[in-house]
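User: Could you check the structure of this?
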Amino acid sequence: MPEQQPYYGKNGEPKKYDPTFKGPIYNRGCTDIVCCILFIICILGYVAVGILAWSQGDPRKVIYPTDSRGQFCGQAGTPLETKPLLFYFNIMKCASPMVLLEFQCPTTQMCVEKCPDKFMTLLKAYTNKEDFKYYKNFCKEGLEGLTVTQILSSGLCPAMLTPSKPFTRRCFPALGQKKGGEITVGNNSKFDDGEGNIRDAKDLVAGVKNATVVIEARQVAMKIFEDYTQSWYWILIGLVIAMLISLLFIVLLRFLAGIMVWVMIVMVILVIGYGIFHCSMEYVSLKSEAGSNVTLKDLGFQTDFSVYLHIRQTWLAFIIILAIVEVVIILLLIFLRNRILIAIALIKEASRAIGYVMSALFYPLFTFALLSIVIAYWAVTAVFLSTSNQPIYKVFNETACDHSRKICEPANFSTSSMKAECPDSKCLFAFYGGETVYHKYLIGLQFYNVFLFFWCANFVTALGQMTLAGAFASYYWALVKPDDMPAFPIFSSLGRSLRYHTGSLAFGSLILSIIQIIRVLLEYIDHKLQGTQNKCTKFLLCCLKCCFWCLEKFIKFINRNAYIMVAIYGKNFCTSAKDAFFLLMRNMIRVAVLDKVTDFLLFLGKLLIVGLVGIFAFFFFSGRVKAFENTAPNLHYYWVPILTVVVGSYLIAHGFFSVYAMCVDTLFLCFCEDLERNDGSLARPYYMSASLHDILSENKAVEETEEPTQSSPHQPDDQHVQLKQ
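Assistant: Sure, the predicted structure tokens are below.
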């Protein structure tokens, strides 16, 4: 058989017409085998790290407070099961600056059944049998036959008790404030410290403040958790509504693409306009409210985010942001009106493709399930790794001591030389750590956990992209639809991707993961250097973060198109990435006209769904509508379920619309390849449909009005712009 003669593409690239090519090649081999083997080895190592972490870790260290002996308060199945609260012998010692450095209060801490509810000193309680019986609940064992002096010198009891309330499973003085601003504890402004001194209640404030420095965030977290327990079913209802709206929107796009796109554009403009109107009304209504003119800078950070909604500057910021978004969208619609018509035609073609591959609409559920497994494995492993340290005890003392803050052993501390040299010192639990080889490399294991999380998550995303690309490519390259298509395009494409191209998927996701982990390290370095005033360092970090952000976006773009080429031709990742990149560069104007404008329209669809569900969630959870006042749950922060519903709605809408986006990208790349492979003649017919012919005709007209093209010396232009026979 004589060698096939090459013909020349539009830009002079030699091509060979392959009459047997009918879409994704089935006779293919494995690609990027080395990276596949590396990925499998790393996954096995990841499993080993998880097993090691689960064998060494103890999540109880996060759940339960720890006393001075390193025991967990309230742990089920232990003698402390009935003692869930942590009690501080002398909360005022927590005012020491060392608390902020070591996150540990230098006073004895023990587990108790309930917090003290009255004032009492050991000196007075010792003389009353009933009072002393009550006092013993907050003392260690071994008080029999000891005097008050001996008890205090041995550190078996606190010198005093103050009325306290439990907070995050810890007993803190029940501080209050009178109208004049005077601090009280148990409704008293003064108290006996047990050493014969009458002190002001305000002396307790510094101790309480430092003692809670580590757990202030936990208070907010607990309130948020309570809000979730009160509103989780309403959140689920909101997410179900978002899913139904997204599904309805996709179905309507299938049959009424042109109408739905214009309806979507108008509704987005109206929703944003309503947001501007509502924010303006709130801004005006706060004009007469006292304290509403405070600036956000003066207010500072508040854990109660509802405070910001009572500040006029907050609503002014919302108005400005929404107005800018509205103006940008309107200007884009005005200047891109011709291209939007072309993009709508491409969306119609994508709708037809999805009509033949309806199972693609539900594939994001499979991707979501795999990502949930990856995220759950990473989170559980991270918790077990962070809790796999051993309890570390240190010497705490009130007077000068050479052994202060040194590591000690509580079992033999009373007979040790440290105790002999520092009689008033105590060996108390400080934190969790360790000096073994495992503990020394614990930070490395955490880093490995984060890196494999990025790699696995990107691999799952890449698998979804290649699977959808293979399914939609089989639609495009079928001359007779659906007869020339596989019976189950999604399952066929998924099988090919896993069987032959696991290495290519791992290669592309590895490159992206390396860039993402570098971005994480840059953010960590930036966080550590926040206190520095070196402007050069800040500028350098800012430039690095910006560059790697752009690089990540570029790699995602390259990977996405490379996976499409791998799904079609079965070549390795680098070859596919190169072919996809140069194919897109040869069709740069078409990329802007068709692909990116279509992405913009699909983004407006996501924005519309999020806006509709978000507005409904706002009026429901905030109680602004009287009809929902008795139905909506009572919450600490009503923004918690609103934000959850908004983020969840975006993810759901993104999942559905990502199918459309992948379909458009695949059809576009196949479209460009079809133009260079074929010329529309009987010998080399186009595989594109008649509607895509029309899209190209309109696109060509737009190109010619914007930028005249020069003819290739190898091939006349009219042969390539001829679309219909």
